[in-house]
Design goal:
This protein has 5 helices and 7 strands; from the N terminus they run αβαβαββαβαββ. By secondary structure, the protein is of the alpha/beta class. The termini are far apart.
Length: 202
């Protein structure tokens, strides 16, 4: 089993490209989920503890940050418990169980998950990797009892490798999102990002 390097560990000479990419993505994810935390609090009001599912957390560093920001023992108005991440990559569970034990890591397909099984569903910088993001988002909305939050590149002109689709405001309108916040992200090198909210309480 290869060793897991935390984002807080010093870089070693001759680090592999795979490990360097991992660290860059960890740092980027932590920033994205910080943005997501602020945005969620605009729409989920009141003092309460809600269950949260994050779809596509990659290594889990961003999700672990979100868990910490809304920890059930924190002073925060909004708390998340339990916090569950689901990904298709088996590495997610291995890394999360080693580094981020405060989140529950699962491997699986969202289309196998029960509808109305979590209060809040988040999905950060994943839908642009999905060939059919419409069906994907509609399933996310069915899983969420209260709210769905999506973060992604916005109207990406020159798609980076691995991005299958360009997400536009029209996409969010078509899928009944009530708010889209577009911003110039300081941790995305290729243009604008956005955060989008959909009320799923019915």
């Amino acid at each position: 089993m290869k060793s897991v390097l935390s984002i807080f560990d010093p870089l070693k000479p001759g680090s592999s490209n795979e490990m360097l990419l991992r660290l860059r993505c960890d740092s980027q994810s932590i920033n994205y989920y910080g943005d997501l935390s602020r945005y969620i609090c605009k729409f989920v009001l009141g003092f309460e503890t809600l269950s949260l599912l994050d779809v596509g957390p990659r290594t889990g560093s961003g999700l672990a940050t979100l868990r910490l920001l809304h920890h059930p023992f924190a002073f925060n108005r909004l708390k998340f418990d339990p916090v569950v991440g689901v990904d298709l990559d088996p590495e997610f569970v291995r890394i999360a169980e080693t580094e981020f034990r405060d989140i529950e890591a699962r491997i699986g397909d969202i289309f196998d998950m029960a509808d109305n099984s979590f209060d809040v569903v988040t999905c950060s910088h994943t839908i642009e990797h999905i060939p059919d993001p419409g069906s994907f988002v509609e399933k996310l909305a069915r899983i969420a009892r209260r709210a769905l939050f999506v973060a992604c590149p916005f109207e990406e002109v020159a798609r980076v490798p691995g991005h299958c689709v360009t997400i536009t405001r029209e996409f969010f309108n078509e899928h009944k999102f009530e708010d889209v916040e577009v911003y110039d992200s300081n941790h995305w090198h290729n243009g604008l990002c956005c955060l989008a909210y959909r009320n799923t309480a019915g």
